[in-house]
Amino acid sequence: MPPLNTSRPSPMTFFLLGIPGLEHLHAWIGIPFCSMYVVAVVGNVTILAVVRAERSLHEPMFLFLCMLSFTDLVLSTSTLPRMLCLFWLRAHDIAFDACLTQMFFIHSFTAMESGFFLAMAIDRYVAICDPLRHTTILTHTRIAIMGIIVVIRGVAFFSPHPILLKQLPYCRTRIIAHTYCEFMAVVKLACMDTGVTKHYSLSVASIIGSCDAILIAVSYAFILCSVFHLPSREASFKALGTCGSHVCVILVFYSTAGFSIFTHRFGKNVPARIHIFIANMYLLVPPFLNPIVYGVRTKKIRENVLRVLRVKVA
Questions:
Q1: Percentage with pLDDT > 70 across the chain
Q2: Alpha carbon of 272 to those of 26, 92, 148, 151, 262: distances in Å?
Q3: CB 17 within 8 A of CB 175
Q4: Does any domain span residue 248?
Q5: The dihedral sign for the CA sequence 143, 144, 147, 149
Q6: Is 8 part of a structural domain of the chain?
Q7: pLDDT (tens digit, 9 = 90+) per residue, 173-192?
Q8: DSSP class per residue in 29-63
Q9: Percent helix, strand and coil across the chain, each rounded to 5?
Q10: Which Gene3D superfamilies is this protein grouped with (predicted)?
């Protein structure tokens, strides 16, 4: 693809390259990606429908789970359909404004995902460490306020991204070496010094991610201390099993997102295909795993889904 030699502030379109070095495998890579997307959509829509229909599930844990499910739906839908068009239909071109819109949804909803993981960790902390006051501490009003704060934080810190990129001149190539419009991949195409812009993006992502991860770790540390002091061994094992599966999902999200952030800052020698593949994972795997871990493994949701299925079959 030849470079776009123009002094216009922004090009009409960008060219999404995909995963460099693995172009011949794009069609095959799209199969597991599509399967994960289908599971994510069906699972998260099911959770939202079941919690909405069953009033007994209008508890803090399930309300936060609904917020997480909605975030997962937006996050996966803003990336996967466009990615599959690239893999299967070779639709590489993406309009500049569409690219900026996708970027805003990806980065802001990734921050929201992190915030809702933290909110759910706080909920589990209160439920296990102070069960008698759980519903009085986490009232519906406080849950709504926490959700609003998470959404405002994601929008406020990442809405400058498309605005900043809109002001930059692009007089080099218009090829984005990625499967979606990632901020750092796009800002590299500008034909001026973007050091301050890059520093802002990496700093915001690092601060939000690290603060949330630390607070989640502290919450689960207190939870573990309480679990080991439970009088019943069976209750301890059950709580450990539940917390363990939650921690695994959280670790997948923060490890892959952290790898992507630190690769931009320090990993100049990391092959592009490895960086891009792992960058896809933190957008694909959590929306795929969350309905399984938080939904299928949650007894109340599982029982309500099975009851609805039995009624429809009958």
A1: 91
A2: 15, 18, 36, 31, 13
A3: yes
A4: yes
A5: negative
A6: no
A7: 788 989 999 998 899 888 88
A8: HHHHHHHHHHHHHHHHHHHHHHHHH-GGG-SHHHH
A9: 75, 5, 20
A10: Rhodopsin 7-helix transmembrane proteins (1.20.1070.10)
Q: Is residue 207 part of a domain?
A: yes
pLDDT, tens digit (0-9, with 9 covering 90-100), for 214-240: 999 999 898 888 877 777 777 677 777
Tell me how far apart the alpha carbons of residues 105 and 83 are, in angstroms, rounded to a whole number: 15
pLDDT of 121: 92
Cα 197 to Cα 203: distance, rounded to the nearest angstrom: 10
Contacts of 106 (CB under 8 A, 6+ apart): 75, 78, 79, 180, 181, 182, 283
Q: Own/partner pairs for 130-138, CB < 8 Å, 24+ apart?
A: 134/60, 135/59, 135/60, 138/60
pLDDT in tens, 134-144: 889 999 999 99
CATH of the domain at 267: 1.20.1070.10
Q: In this structure, what token pair is assigned to residue 209? A: 């991610």
Beta bridge partners of 175: 15
Domain ranges, residue 288? 13-307
Q: Is residue 314 part of a domain?
A: no
Q: How far apart are CA 292 and CA 283, in angstroms?
A: 16
Domain tally, the chain: 1
Residue 16 β-bridge partners: 176
Which position has the token pair 């080991």?
A: 228
Write down how long the chain is. Answer: 314
Distances from the Cα of 179 to the Cαs of 102, 228, 260, in angstroms? 12, 45, 14
How many Å separate Cα 91 from the centre of its chain?
24
- Phi/psi of residue 252, nearest 5 degrees: -60, -45
Q: Is 300 exposed, middle or buried, given 0-12, 13-18 or 19+ CB atoms closer than 10 A?
A: middle
**Which residues partner with 93 through β-bridges?**
15
Question: Tell me: the pLDDT tens digits for 235-248?
Answer: 677 777 667 777 88
Contact 182, 162 (CB under 8 A): no
214 Cβ neighbours under 8 A, 6+ residues apart = none
